[in-house]
Amino acid sequence: MVARFRVLTMKLETFEQIEKEGIMSNSKVVKDVMIGIFEYPHIPYWFSISQAIRIVKVSFLSSKKYPDPMVMLVFDEKYNFIGTLTMKDILKGLEPKIKMSIHEPRPDEEAALSLDWNTFFVNESKELAEKPVSDIMVQAKFFVELNDPVAKAAYLMLRHDLLLLPVLQDKKKFVGLVRMIEIFDEISKGLLSNSDEIK
Amino acid sequence: MELIDREDHQKLYLQLYEILKKKIENTEWTVGSQIPTEEELCKIFNVSRATVRTAVLELVRQGYLKRQQGKGTFIYRNVVSEGLTMLTNFRELLFEEGINFSTDVLARTVMMPIDDLDIKLEISDDKHIIYIKRLRSVDNEPVLLQETYIPHYICPLLLEEDIDHHDLFDLFEEKYGIKITKVKNYIEITYLNADEARLIGLPEGSAVVLLNQYFYSGETLIMYTRSIKRTDRFKFLMELERKVA
Question: Which chain A residues touch B111 with a CB distance below 8 Å?
Answer without folding.
Answer: 42-44, 47, 75
